[in-house]
């Protein structure tokens, strides 16, 4: 791009983990053009993530926007007066709206039929067959802007700008953190809403039982529904364990994760939040493409991956032993 853009819209209307791995793009844009305004068009349930990023100037709520008449949706995008929109997650109706709003540069991957008539800057690459990480693949969409797409995972770890999380925690949670401040505080996030190959709840239970209560305090997180599933399968009635499932909003969860020492989870959004927050993020993965750690591992200075030797068969879960996870926690606590 010959002239510095004054305003770029990033459109990513999918899950928490995907949004987390898109934030470094915003960091690269701001590093290139500090005065460029960035609007992030995202889902309501990822708002807390987007607003915690120092590189994002405006959050635009797609869930609210899509309830309006098409003409009003177009007016909303027109009012942005953006120079470019990057469709990181190409949603057909948003592609249409951006064209109707006459945004000058409309960037999208070139492998989707509906993008061919709605976007004027197509980037051709394959996510499914690539050996690059998801976050690195996102950088390819910066090519039409003239920004280098070559970036290492170490560089990406410094680009999140995940510094605006200042949500106040509920008093009882704040008290827990203070009470156990002399211990290593570990978060277990057992479930993933089916988005990842998971570790068994029985393994999580064994891990809890093997963490010395005098040195570790464990918090179990997840949605209210996930908490019911966990409690129906294993006991969380341990002196060194607190069940926080269903008790924290997303902004509160972000703040809470940043106050703990480590988080253990499968390939989920909270795992990427932990990595971006700078705590030990221990990810449990399947080697199967395209869900393998090469594509989806947490990126952070203290991120670590434990990968099963094979993908679990139907009805089974990740073949990672509690010993392997315990060793990772022990390394992280030194």
The separation of the N and C termini measures 48 Å
Structural class: alpha/beta
Shape: globular
Largest sheet: spatial strand order:
3-2-1-4-5-6
> Mind telling me the C-alpha Rg?
21 Å
Residue ranges: pLDDT <50 for 5 or more in a row?
Answer: none
CATH superfamily of the largest domain: Glycogen Phosphorylase B
**How many distinct domains?**
2
Give the SSE order as H and E letters. EHHEHEHHEHEHEHHHEHEHEHEHEHEH
Please tally the helical runs, counting DSSP H or I stretches of 4 or more residues.
16
Largest sheet: 6 strands, parallel
| Percent helix range | 25-40%
CATH topology of the largest domain: Rossmann fold
Going by CATH, the architecture of the largest domain would be 3-Layer(aba) Sandwich
Q: Would you mind describing this structure in some detail?
A:
The protein has helices at 16-20, 23-32, 47-51, 62-65, 70-80, 92-100, 113-118, 134-139, 153-157, 171-179, 201-210, 224-233, 250-259, 269-277, 293-296, 322-332, and strands at residues 7-11, 37-42, 58-61, 84-87, 105-109, 121-123, 184-189, 216-220, 241-243, 262-265, 280-285, 303-307. It is globular. By secondary structure, the protein is α/β, with parallel strands linked by helices. The strands form two sheets. Strands 3-2-1-4-5-6 form a six-stranded parallel β-sheet. Strands 9-8-7-10-11-12 form a six-stranded parallel β-sheet.
